[in-house]
Design brief:
Blueprint (H helix, E strand, L loop, with lengths): L1 H20 L6 H6 L6 H12 L2 H14 L6 H22 L9 H7 L4 H38 L3 H50 L2 H11 L13 H12 L9 H9 L4 H32 L9 H9 L2 H33 L7 H25 L5 H23 L6 H24 L5 H6 L1 H10 L8 H16 L1
Helix pairs in contact: 1-8, 1-14, 3-8, 3-11, 3-12, 3-14, 4-12, 4-14, 5-12, 6-7, 6-16, 6-20, 7-8, 7-14, 7-15, 7-16, 7-17, 8-12, 8-13, 8-14, 8-15, 9-12, 13-14, 14-15, 16-17, 16-19, 17-19
């Protein structure tokens, strides 16, 4: 009962934030970017929470539980992705002249090209990628909600999934980006507190780091305590590259990049925001890895490794604190799903139409699209697999390879034609899908690098091929056009 009361109080707080933010949505800039007025704490923590979905708490701890010491490579991958975003992309994006008038990542890319047909093609491909892979991503988050409620309260997974989806949709519809950013900040702080308290409780239950190592060596299969899983050099290199490749996806996540666009102007704000974000990442990912390893000693034989977080919370914490831990999982789910629903809605209502709505009409259209996309994601979650980690990484990799290389190139002054942007985006998407199919059908340690590293490298090579320098005039024309369209 205490767990349920804690959760109800937490969800009512989120709904209250949505209601309070409702009147701040007067136009598209408010609904999609919060009027570009986020402070450093809100921008950094909300960006961190939205980039760290259910797979961060359930998936990373579960991967550490099942894979052992080799999961350590997730730490430099994920923290390195935060560094790449905040120290490389964010400053360049804020200097890019077209970003000041854009509401979406796709609009920035389309604005760098000259001819209208090329811009429409970039908008169409970018919007299609967002709709397909964001829906897949959100469906995985709803799966995480169902798993959480089912494991905690014994509710049927379908009922649990519907409850979690309904709460996310409700406050996203009401408050837009303001509500999403404020709730994501609250949820990110809850996640950070949980990543500190629960792993510490688990390590205390094990006894000490030395006892943890002894317990893993005695109870786990061969290679469990080896960072390369006992593989040879070639296979081990494939394993490491596959995990490190996750970090390459960070610059291409539209639901994270829009926080950089929404942060208040000023170098001091950016410096403060990135310090907070990096500290958050170190705490959360280190905590989840430690929890997974401790869970292997404390709770051996779990049928589903991704429930180790929930098992530890219910076993090691008092009921009220366990409720906070469960709320943290739902926080990870909601802080990603709400941001992704908004990004997908912006693609439909802002990027695709030739004649865009404005003001409150655009807000009304966007709310209708959020509702429709949430319904599609819910149906996909009900029909899809219960695993969270793998589907999220496929969607993550596809978005990262599609948007990341051209966005970095444009922000660093490369003048790309629409054809070159389309080739880079298409190559990133196609190679990610092919790599995922190869990994699922053939397997092997090199399947993951083919899925996560090769697509990014190929798209990057297309963007930075020397002939791209010849289109400077086209790029300047596209930037002026983007700024003109943003004023209208």
């Amino acid at each position: 009962m205490a767990v349920l009361v804690t959760l109800v109080a937490y969800k009512l707080t989120l709904v209250a934030i949505g209601l309070a933010a409702r009147e701040r949505n007067r136009d598209g800039a408010d609904y999609f970017l919060g009027g570009r007025a986020l402070g450093p704490l809100v921008a950094s923590v909300s960006a961190s929470a939205s980039s760290s979905s259910a797979w961060t708490l359930l998936g990373v701890s579960g991967f550490a539980y099942s894979s052992g010491a080799s999961a350590i490579w997730l730490f430099p991958a994920c923290v390195g992705g935060f560094v790449l975003n905040w120290y490389v992309l964010a400053p360049a994006l804020r200097r890019h002249p077209g970003a000041a008038g854009a509401l979406t990542v796709t609009e920035i890319l389309a604005g760098s090209g000259g001819d209208p047909s090329g811009r429409r093609a970039v908008n169409a491909l970018g919007s299609a990628a967002v709709l397909v892979f964001m829906t897949t991503y959100v469906a995985s988050q709803f799966q995480g909600a169902g798993k959480t409620f089912s494991e905690t309260f014994g509710l049927p997974a379908a009922h649990s999934l519907l409850i979690g989806a309904a709460i996310v949709v409700f406050y996203t519809l009401l408050g837009g980006f303001w509500a999403v950013s404020l709730t994501d900040t609250l949820q990110g702080l809850v996640m950070a507190a949980t990543a500190l308290i629960l792993p510490a409780a688990a390590l205390l239950a094990v006894g000490s780091p030395a006892r943890l190592l002894d317990g893993l060596a005695q109870s786990a299969p061969p290679g469990f305590t080896d960072p390369l899983q006992g593989m040879g050099i070639a296979a081990g290199a494939g394993l490491v590259l596959g995990l490190l490749g996750i970090g390459l996806g960070y610059p291409g996540q539209p639901h994270v990049v829009n926080r950089f666009m929404a942060l208040r102007p000023g170098a001091a704000e950016l410096r403060q925001a990135r310090r907070i974000a990096i500290a958050w990442a170190v705490l959360v990912y280190a905590g989840m890895l430690l929890l997974g390893w401790c869970g292997r000693v404390l709770f051996p034989g779990l049928g589903d490794p991704e429930v180790v977080f929930l098992t530890a919370a219910n076993a090691l914490c008092p009921p009220v604190l366990a409720g906070v831990m469960v709320a943290a999982v739902l926080s990870a789910i909601m802080s990603t799903a709400d941001s992704q629903l908004l990004v997908a809605a912006s693609s439909v209502t802002h990027d695709l139409p030739r004649r865009r709505a404005a003001g409150r009409r655009l807000v009304a259209q966007s709310r209708a699209v959020v509702l429709a996309l949430a319904g599609a994601a819910t149906l996909a979650a009900l029909a899809g697999p219960r695993e969270i980690f793998s589907p999220v990484l496929v969607a993550w990799g596809a978005l990262g390879a599609c948007f990341g290389p051209p966005l970095l190139a444009v922000c660093f002054g490369r003048r790309l034609t629409p054809r070159r942007i389309l080739c880079a985006m298409g190559a990133g998407l196609a190679l990610t899908v092919l790599g995922a199919l190869y990994r699922s059908q053939v397997g092997g340690s090199w399947g993951a690098p083919l899925e996560r590293v090769l697509p990014f490298v190929a798209a990057w090579a297309i963007c930075f091929w020397p002939s791209a320098r010849g289109s400077a005039a086209v790029g300047r024309e596209g930037t002026r056009d983007l700024e003109s369209r943003s004023r209208n």
